[in-house]
UniProtKB/TrEMBL annotation:
Domain of life (superkingdom): Eukaryota
UniProt KW Transmembrane helix keyword: yes
Annotated InterPro entries: MOT1/MOT2 (IPR031563)
Keyword Transmembrane helix: yes
Biased composition (Polar residues): 21-36
Gene source species: Cyclotella cryptica
The name this protein goes by in its record: Sulfate transporter
UniProt keyword annotations, A-Z: Membrane, Transmembrane, Transmembrane helix
């Protein structure tokens, strides 16, 4: 082949290339868009996402069996207190259920955290202790106590005075509060079970022991599933790396092709070797990247398919067994929904109890649907003495518990349980409420009681024990409490006055196990926060100081543990959270570094004033 032939061939190929492409590199058959692209106009081209639609979509995506199971984690505390108050006519059950459910829905919608709504325990304890003459409270004083407590907590939240309370109470005392309240909660569930008999009915100690043993099996860590997940993730990462390598080769191939075409246009008298390279590159470019990617997928060795060794009949039997006996899986693909299991067990025995109850039983049968009011005027007939009794007997003992356990402790617990949901700006400030702030929780508790108690709601708050229980049973999002809220509201509307009969029929043995699990989860979280605080303090210490032996992690952990155990022990012995917090604060100031921290804080304030 002569050089003239080579020139003609290149002219033909260039003409074909010009026919295929139009000006500006566009295809000849495509219309040319002369409008310039402005990056500033790009955000306006997209429709703004509606926050309500986005939140609904998020709730739908997180609607799982685990969330449904976690929504039942707080029933062990909610049901006994609510039914006891309703049975003694200290609250109206219909409005109390409805407004508690509405509070669940609102908090679950606003926060993507399974924040529980439960009765204020100190007010409930005083109300259940007897009548007004016996040192207790009646329905009107319970309502006034909730309104006054909500007003004080709302004031602390709006004015940010709750931050002063948080600054005064150190983290070690908060950990001790969680340990003490958790042990009390677990012991409360165990005492309720011990009041039963070993036999003679469905609700007995034997049922509680059986449920406790099964819960130990259901709640254990699934190591095999975690290992398999890690291996599967590693294999997927290897495949992604190989695919990315092929895509990089495509890019480099396109660059080399462009350089080759430029070289050929400048040297029209190239040799046959360049023409062969050009045809070879064109052939390679003619195959799309997706085809090579699909070919790579087929070439990458994947996991061998599972081929059952048994017969088809045996395989069908195993499938049926796995579907019907999912609670007996040793290594389930998802965690066991323990809350659903326990609730189903309790519902089955409650149905049997109501079905076999005679006319002389304590249950109000037959069941009545609708008819019960959900909104009442709870302040009708209130007197000044009701306000004074409610404040002195209910509000004052409740305020320390609400500030410490329902605000400070629950924010620390959410901060520890959900690190992926922390606010980066708040976390950078080394705050312990980067998930849900203390101001938000204070305002929530205040408005919940200030607005809803006059309409028939019982005094409610958020609690660390309820959050720990819902988390332990599988809840990770606000979807769980939204489900629970609609369940409470539906129970109040549809079953009306018979809601007390349904709740009262649930076995105490099952509810006691649920309370014990929630308490032990709170204890474990408090201990974990204590250890984590030591690790963070170790990270802040410089390397020279750590090598010199000035910072001893074991010594620091021993000091913090003593302060926390003093707090927890006083709470368990006296059943008073405020006494435990005061004892822990004194131990922190004397035994811990409280005095040194206070001196350092005063010096910092003085230096700041001097500089100003």
């Amino acid at each position: 082949m002569t050089n003239n032939d080579n020139v003609n061939d290149h002219e033909i190929s260039s003409s074909r290339c010009n026919e295929d492409t139009g000006p500006n590199g566009t295809q000849a058959n495509e219309p040319i868009n002369n409008t310039t692209h402005n990056d500033d106009d790009e955000p306006h081209q997209h429709k703004r996402t509606n926050p309500i639609t986005s939140r609904l979509r998020s709730l739908h995506q997180t609607l799982t069996v685990s969330e449904l199971s976690g929504s039942l984690g707080d029933l062990g505390t909610f049901i006994p207190l609510t039914t006891a108050l309703a049975r003694q006519r200290k609250i109206s059950l219909g409005p109390a259920l409805f407004w508690a459910g509405l509070s669940n829905v609102i908090t679950g919608w606003m926060w993507d955290v399974p924040m529980c709504v439960q009765p204020m325990k100190s007010i409930a304890a005083v109300a259940l202790s007897g009548s007004v003459e016996e040192g207790g409270m009646d329905a009107l004083s319970v309502t006034t106590a909730g309104i006054l407590a909500g007003g004080v907590v709302l004031f602390l939240g709006v004015t940010n005075l709750m931050e002063v309370v948080n600054w005064v109470v150190p983290l070690t005392v908060v950990c001790g509060i969680q340990v003490g309240v958790g042990v009390r909660l677990a012991s409360k569930g165990m005492k309720d079970v011990m009041d039963l008999t070993w036999g003679g009915g469905y609700d007995c100690i034997g049922l509680a022991v059986g449920c406790a043993v099964m819960c130990l099996f259901w709640l254990r860590e699934n190591e095999k599933k975690e290992d398999s997940g890690k291996n599967g993730q590693g294999r997927q990462e290897e495949r992604d790396d190989m695919i990315s390598q092929v895509n990089d080769q495509d890019v480099s191939l396109n660059v080399e092709m462009g350089q080759c075409q430029q070289h050929q246009s400048e040297n029209m008298n190239s040799s046959l070797h360049h023409e062969n390279v050009h045809s070879l590159d064109s052939t390679m470019l003619s195959s799309s990247s997706s085809e090579r990617t699909s070919a790579l997928h087929s070439a990458i060795p994947s996991e061998p398919p599972f081929t059952p060794k048994s017969s088809s009949l045996s395989s069908c039997f195993h499938k049926i067994w796995n579907k019907t006996c999912c609670c007996l899986h040793l290594h389930p693909s998802t965690p066991h929904p323990v809350g659903i299991y326990l609730f189903l067990i309790g519902s089955i025995f409650a149905a049997i109890t109501l079905a076999t109850a005679g006319p002389d039983s304590a249950y109000d049968l037959p069941l009545h649907f609708f008819g019960a009011p959900i909104v009442i005027n709870a302040l009708k007939g209130v007197s000044p003495s009701d306000w004074s009794i409610g404040f002195l007997r209910g509000t004052l003992p409740q305020l320390p518990l609400t500030a410490l356990n329902s605000v400070i402790s629950v924010c620390c617990l959410a901060h520890n349980l959900y690190p992926e949901k922390r606010n980066a700006a708040l976390e950078a400030q080394d705050r312990t409420d980067a998930v849900v702030t203390r101001r938000e929780v204070s305002i929530s508790v205040g408005l919940m009681n200030l607005l809803l108690c006059p309409l028939g709601s019982m005094p409610n708050c958020h609690g660390a024990g309820g959050l720990a229980g819902q988390h332990r049973f599988g809840a990770r999002h606000g979807t769980s409490v939204v489900i629970l809220g609609f369940f409470k509201m539906g129970l109040a509307v549809f079953f009306g006055s018979s809601a007390l009969t349904l709740l009262d029929a649930l076995p105490v043995a099952v509810l006691g196990v649920m309370v014990a699990i929630a308490g032990l989860e709170l204890v474990g979280t408090g201990v974990g926060m204590l250890v984590e605080s030591v690790e963070k303090e170790k990270e802040k210490v410089t390397g020279c100081r750590a090598r010199s032996g000035i910072f001893d992690p074991k010594k620091v952990l021993r000091e913090k543990t003593l302060v926390a155990m003093v707090t927890g022990s006083v709470i368990i012995a006296t059943s008073r959270t405020d006494y435990g917090a005061l004892a822990g604060w004194v131990a922190h100031m004397i035994y811990g570094n409280g005095i040194l921290d206070f001196v350092a804080w005063t010096k910092k304030k003085r230096s700041g004033r001097t500089s100003v």
